[in-house]
Amino acid sequence: MYKISEFAEITGLSKETLRYYAEVKLLESAYINPNNNYRYYDDGSYFLAILLVKLRRFGFTIQEMITVMEDESFANLEQLLIKKRKKIQIQIKEASG
Description:
The protein is mainly α and 97 residues long. It is built from five helices and three strands; from the N terminus they run E-H-H-E-E-H-H-H. Strands 1-3-2 form a three-stranded antiparallel beta sheet. A hairpin with a 6-residue loop joins strand 2 (31-32) and strand 3. The chain is elongated, with a radius of gyration of 16 Å.
């Protein structure tokens, strides 16, 4: 288990971002200590956090990331990535043309 500060360091996400992601139910901690409300993350959380980092780099909005995370099978992830790539390509063409 990782404390929020450790988890922020290994994922590259700030503590504030992790708290926000928990607030919007995007990435919740694996455990919250009832005595002090400290958040702890596990290895499963790590892989989800890295996916979220990659999605943000691809320009996914918070709502789009929530859609991806709600589909626990990730069956639609490829289609969402293809749509996002096409959208980015259109934006590049519009900006350069």
